[in-house]
Amino acid sequence: MENLSRRKALSLGVALGLAGVAAPARAWASTGSVTAAAAGTGPEWIWDSTADPLMASMLDNGHVPAINTAWASWVNNNDPLPSGVPAEFAAYLRQVNVLPTWADPVKLARAADFNRRRDTYLFMLYGLGSGIMSTVIPREARSVYWSAGGANMQDRAAKTFTFGYDLSQLGAFEPTGQFVVTANKTRVVHAAVRHLLPQSPHWKAVTDETTPISAADILVTFHSLGTYVHRKLLDWKIPFPAADQEAFLHSWQVAVHLLGVPDEHIPQTWAAAEQQSAQVLTPILTPTTEGIELAQDLLGLTAQIDLGVTRGFLNEFVRYVLSDQVGDWLGLTRDYASAALIRTAWPAYILFREGLSPIMPGTFYVFDQFIRALAMLFLNKGASGTTTPITIPTANRAA
């Protein structure tokens, strides 16, 4: 269970999270950021001045298929840069494929251990919380839907869970880990989407922006993932020592930096993150046609395997980790018996797992089977157990 959950803990969340875009920022505060740099242009007006023009050139000149082939074997952080790519692309990778100077290896190692120890809760929250929350972030839902991966959400999930798996690995940021490479591949994909999506008449007809995936978008997605999960773990009264909290935040700070967000806009503390999240995430949550369809697609994937629970139970768990308002927005059919069971049995499940109660609830194995089955669903399309390579798109969703 431990290894399975670690491999899959972020799959659904990342499928709709960092691989997509998020909502517009309205009141960004750069005080309390990860560095002491002075605030400059607000992150809603910052994209990626290094990667964006490069990927526009790579796409326009037809180099992307060759790049996808060449970097398939570029996996570990200490692997040599892929050969057989244009010189300017290799130069870009050489420039960005490093950790920031402020990265703390001790904190990163502790964060990886924390992910291992809390994988069950992380999977539930990233998957049924963050992943479904992203479908009610309007810009994110519309951009995910009209990008190439939106036409096949199971395939998109299989491809994009690599980000979360590699982030949660022990040694993720070490030379033999894989996350630095994975983050840089994801940054390149973001740049490609910024070039492609504005060419989609379908996306242009529903969006209120001209270019997707700003630094603000990535930060909002961070809040729907890291900040949200941090808050829920505290709400559930799961033991969460201050050192673990700090390490968990630090791993996300490094991850967001590797995606190209300027350091001065990355929150330095959880208090700063909560303040930023309250300003720019909570107020903009609302349903869209695209988001409702994406949520139904993702939840509908569960019909392919035996979860050990009903669809009503799944709907109610989404309501439990988010809210009834989100459940109503997405049209999740009510199952009041399951709702009552979850609201009483899940806290008891936590107490027993944490050694805070000697009484194992009768529903313990129901929850355990549920978590295992959800993990299997996104384990490379429920099949081989290997990660699916990150590839650069060359087109948008057709219709």
UniProtKB/TrEMBL annotation:
Q: Signal sequence: where?
A: 1-27
Q: What is this protein called?
A: DUF2236 domain-containing protein
A Pfam family annotated for this UniProt entry:
MPAB_Lcp_cat
Organism's domain of life?
Bacteria
InterPro entries per record: Lcp-like, MPAB/Lcp_cat_dom, TAT_signal
Tell whether Signal is among the UniProt keywords: yes
Domain ER-bound oxygenase mpaB/mpaB'/Rubber oxygenase catalytic, which positions? 122-341
- The yes or no answer to whether the keyword Signal is present is yes
Q: What is the lineage of its organism?
A: Bacteria, Bacillati, Actinomycetota, Actinomycetes, Kitasatosporales
Which keywords are on file for this protein? Signal
Question: Which GO-annotated molecular functions does the record name?
Answer: oxidoreductase activity
